[in-house]
Amino acid sequence: MATNVEPKQKNLLVRFLTMNTNGASSGRSLPLWKQLALQVLTFVIGFEVMFPILYIITLSFSPKSERPSTLQLIPTEFSFLAYGQVLDRPTANPVTFIELLKNSFFLSFGVGLVALLVAVTAAYAFSRFKFKLRQVLMVLVFVPLLMPAVGLATPLYLLLNSFKLMDCGGGVWAFNPITMCEPGVTGKLLFNLRDSLLGVGIAMISGALPFAVWNLKGYLDTIPLELEEAAAIDGADPNQIFFQIVLPLAIPQLAVTFFLGFIGHWQEFAMSWLFLTKPDQYTLSMTLYNMTGQYANSIPWNRFAAMSVIVALPVAVIYIALQKYITSGLTTGAVKG
Description:
The protein is mainly alpha-helical and 337 residues long. The chain has helices at residues 2-18, 32-60, 81-88, 97-128, 134-142, 153-161, 197-220, 225-233, 238-249, 251-266, 270-275, 284-290, 301-335, and strands at residues 164-169, 172-176, 188-192. The protein is 63% helix and 5% strand. It has a three-stranded antiparallel sheet with strand order 2-1-3, with no helix packed on it. A hairpin with a 2-residue loop joins strand 1 and strand 2. Helix 4 (97-128) packs across helix 10 (251-266) and helix 10 (251-266) packs antiparallel against helix 13 (301-335). The protein is flat.
């Protein structure tokens, strides 16, 4: 009797672990043990991703600035002291939080907008016009995407550093390298394009353009050419076709491209840190780095965590609000292009 019961118990266990619980009538069915394994794996990955975020948020509500000695995900006490100190005066530099916010917004918004305006015209030319070396130029546009942005910092640094506005004295100005002061006259430096938000923005635009061109070109390829041909037959000139037909149809992808450029450069640090030297032109990311000291005990950990949350919050809110549009826009441009 005992020998007959054991196989039945094993069969019941095997049937339990291999039964299909997803209730799907089509597609691949997964046995229960695979579903449980995938759920456990998903939970482990989700916990690994969310743990540092939850820990930073918890640390930002701590009233103590010392280095924490334990890992706590649930705060034992709530205090907005660190947030108030960061918003009042982030660092020892005499720069307010509003000025830092303006600098970061100027860079990210300006880079996203200028890159979009230039990229949409270039993408339209690559999508609609046939000219010599078209394929070669498309490859050359793609090449910067293969290189890290910091790898291009040195040539951009040297290039932008050569553009300087000098006061040669006697009411005479010179703009290097176009005009120079008289031989033997050193001149006083009034403006250096490299050491300015404008110069950093130009350097960032050079890195944002390749992706914007490729992203928009793939989407513009999906717009039927017959619409433009019909408009041309009705008497529309090329400018009317571009501004009144193509651009309105491409608004979803234009919005996606702009917001990707905005989000991608909101937390840009390397280029800004290499180029800028004046505290009044620092960005939020640079200020966050300045809050770190030589030793771990010298870092105001609660203020550092509060600043991290403030810097990341706009990006997180915008991405969550536009996640569906960003995903669908990238899919449309990549699959149909």
